[in-house]
Amino acid sequence: MHAKQKYISNNHFILVRFTHDMKHDNVLSFYEWYETSNHLWLVVELCTGGSLKAVISQDECLSDDVVREFAADLLKGLKYIHDSDIVFSDFNPAKILLDCPGTLKYSNFGLAKVLGENLEKFFALVMSEEGGDNKESATPGQNIKNRTQGSLLYCAPEVIRGESTSISSDLWGLGCILFEMFTGSGCLQCSPEFQSLVLGLLQKDPLKSVQLEAFSGFSETEAEAQTVAAGPINPSHKKSFTLDNVTEFRPKSVLDTDATESIFLLSSCPTPRSSSTAEDMENREIKTQDSCALEDLQNDSGTCIKELLYTESDLTVSPILDNPKILKNAPVRFDSKTLCISAYSVERLACLSSSEWSAFLQQVCTVLESVERAGSGATATRRTKLNLLCYLCCVCGHRDTATRFIHSQLFPVLIQQLRQAPNWDMKTKVMRVIGLLACHSTELREDVPVIEAVAMFTELLRENFRNSKLKQCLLPPLGELLCLIAAQEEKKEHPGGLWVVPAAAYTVLMRCLREEEEVVVNHMAAKIIENVCSRQCRCAQGFITAEVGPALWYLFTHSTLDVLRVSAMSALCRITRHSTAAFQSVIDTVGLPSILSCFVSGINRVQQHLLTLFATMLASGAHLHRLTQDRDFVVKVMRSLESPSSVIRAKAFLVLLQVLMNNREILLMCCNSRLVMYIERDTRKATPGKEQQSANEYLSKCLALFIRHMVHELPAILDDILTALGSVVGRKHPSNAQTRQLKQSLPMMVVVLNLLSSQIFRPQVVNEGFLIKFGELLPNYSIIYQSVELFLFASPTASEEFIRNTMSAMEAISQHSTLLSCYTCTVLDAILPPLASLAFSKNVEWRIVSLRVLSDITLLLLSQEVMEEEIREKEKWDLKGKSSNTRLLTLITEALLPQYETLLLEPDPIPLYALKLLGTLTEHSKPISRYACSIALQH
How many CB atoms lie within 10 A of CB 928? Predict the structure, then answer.
């Protein structure tokens, strides 16, 4: 259901005009519409899959199969539209929606027209029938022209020249959309380098002409790289499904998408980025440059974390005055018959001329300043003023009206009436008017006596502090005035000393937070701190005291009202944004365990604010060592990853990231608590709807930082393991420091196994450097196994677990051939030799795993070599033609096959795996088959 304002409804009339009778699977169904006083309400078919624009922006480019399916939907829908003698006119991926099964549907026929119809004349006819009430009639010619123009990126050349849209222009727009689906970018988009080149060359002033040396960086190589990055264009090189690219074996990651968009997984099918191994190798050079950019971004992760600490939901504000969650007030009404001035509506007040406005203000001020006379006249005057104040309460809720009132002579008159009013009925109405003006004003000039009003409210609060009812009337307008000052200070950035709030105002508000006060007064004081501290302003600094944190925490822990608990926690969260000393004083007062026990609260907002508080503390460096070493704290944060709220999970990732940046050993506990599973779940999560989009975008950004840190940490973990093992080589009695290092580093192999088993991390961490370091681990098995002393110091269980995890990690890598095919030489030099040696070790489990992994890897290498031979159309192996092939054959014939008979004579199941490996070798390599026959292995 869509609500559209009536004064811009011409396009919606056209939409209803065409779609109310259209029934097609590829056209959005229109059900009904009705109107209210200000809006048109359209009831249309629900499409939960988002728009085609969102799909393209997320997946960048779509596979051939998906483009073919989508194109069929678009063609069928467009044919139906054209068969109905309708021209769609405005092609745009944002106007094409997806339903739940993934069917494309044309929507928004706001610029459609009947074939041969002049849309501008139709608009003019509709506007002339509506008359002057339509706001578009102010500048009809230009406005109509703008309203009938579609998206220029998808406009046909003849339409840009001024001709009307037609069936041909619709076909042009469809072609642009198909091109964008296939390439991921529009037809008219070009790179920034190309734009700079053209703009530099097309200088009208010869003196400003740029020399060619300035564009030396725009070389032919760079142009070729841009062509490769844009994707292959030759259709003959395309496949509907290819297995040559590593990225096809993992889902969309937050690292592959624009940070400003949420993750949208179109289907379970991967999106091919290239179609051949050759193209993949060419793209790898570009990806290497991208990895360098990621490293640069990693170094600036601290700045990124601080930018993500607070979201919009953390800083939203709600009114203090007339807030039903705090205090429900009866609606204010006035009697228009006895009103002493013209009872203008809000709309009429906005249309008053300057002279009429001045006259109106003069009447209002005259009535308010009138002196009450003794007798019955005093009562009448008082009633007149009260009725006028009630009228002002009704019209001050409009932003423009409130802003005009607060900048007029009415505001000083109200302050004077607040001081001189004879009774509290009059004063409370004046307070309400001032509070409404402050709440709804969008601007505050320097000459407005707002500080005088703050001082007056402060004085009244101090004089009547024991009267709870009066405090409930005085606090909301005082809070709204402080919020208005805070908003203007944030807007002006450097306001200097324009609005200096009296210190007594902060003092009296802090007194209202005390435990002996009523709940409503506590809630109002907490709400004032919450709203003011949402702004980056000087006004908020007055609340930063040693007692504000514990006072807000006391309200949170001792209140029975959830709204007050949320408000107190929100106020503490926002004041910590200005100074972490507020939350630090809470930790010092009540202790960390008491705070961690509040994580089990069933209120999502409380859990979100708690995570924000801890993230802010870690980012500031306060209590850093204490928090990063507290395992109970990490466990509580890990449990937050199970929350249904995307924001809470994002905050939890942000807190964990800062913990892991300062304590790498905690990563082992996190992985044992299913951290990788949580990452994969949230990375695959699709956008459920627009109302959740911003939350998922925030989750994507936090996940991006977290994943980059994990990828960056893996080489360091391997280095620690290699260093610990290298320090005990040849030693019978390791030192205490070496033993401690072993106990810390060997269990971290679980982290390596978790990351390699994940389809999110595996393609990002497996590279040449990783394979080299991993290959260095394999020869250390014999060291661990043979050294009895090392077993005693490092514990046999830890050593066996380390070996088992390492072999499992090697199996995880070997099962994904496309990863290893990119690093053939590295696999031959670093991985296969130690594996061949382990195949003849004394440990049966190592031998089985080694044979299994050798079978997988050699099958990959030999199959790849056969494919290359077929391409080169060679009939025989050329042992000298390719060095990698020569090294592989040498390794098999010299290190493996001469001892192979011992494997075949071993007890089961070793001969089974040995025969599988031998079958792979002889089937794909004639030289190996001949060599095996020569040493009688075939018998």
Answer: 23
CATH number at residue 752: 1.25.10.10
Mean residue pLDDT of the chain comes to 78
Q: Which of 247-261, 482-496, 543-557 has the lowest mean pLDDT?
A: 247-261
Whole-structure pTM over 0.70, yes or no? no
- Interatomic CA distance for residues 266 and 687, integer angstroms: 10
Query: Cβ-count burial of 246 within 10 angstroms (0-12 exposed, 13-18 middle, 19+ buried)?
Result: buried
Instruction: Specify whether the CB–CB gap between 653 and 686 falls below 8 A.
Output: no
Percentage of the chain exceeding pLDDT 70: 74
DSSP string spanning 723-738?
HHHHTTTT-SS--HHH
Question: Of 157, 192, 227, which residue sits at a domain end?
Answer: 192
First to last CA, the chain: 77
CB 848 within 8 A of CB 906: no
Which residue range forms the structural domain that includes residue 751? 705-934
Q: Which amino acid is at 187?
A: C
- Residue 542, classed as helix, strand or coil, is helix
| Residue 789 placed within a domain | yes
Nearest to 891 by CA among 842, 851, 836: 836
Residue type, 832: L
The Cα 653–Cα 503 span in angstroms is: 40
CA distance 730 to 737: 16
Is the previous residue joined to 140 through a cis bond, with omega within 30 degrees of 0? no
- Strand order from edge to edge, sheet including 2-5: 2-5, 39-44, 30-35
Beta bridge partners of 35: 40
Name the domain count of the chain: 2
* Residue 482 CB-density burial (10 A; 0-12 exposed, 13-18 middle, 19+ buried): buried
What amino acid positions are annotated as catalytic residues?
A: 90
Give per-residue pLDDT as tens, 792-838.
455 556 677 887 888 888 888 887 777 777 887 888 888 888 887 77
Closest CA relative to residue 512, chosen from 552, 452, 567: 552
pLDDT at residue 919, rounded to an integer: 76
Place of tokens 């519409």: 33
Distance CA 519, CA 326 (A): 9
pLDDT digits (tens, 9 = 90+) for 8-21: 445 555 566 677 77
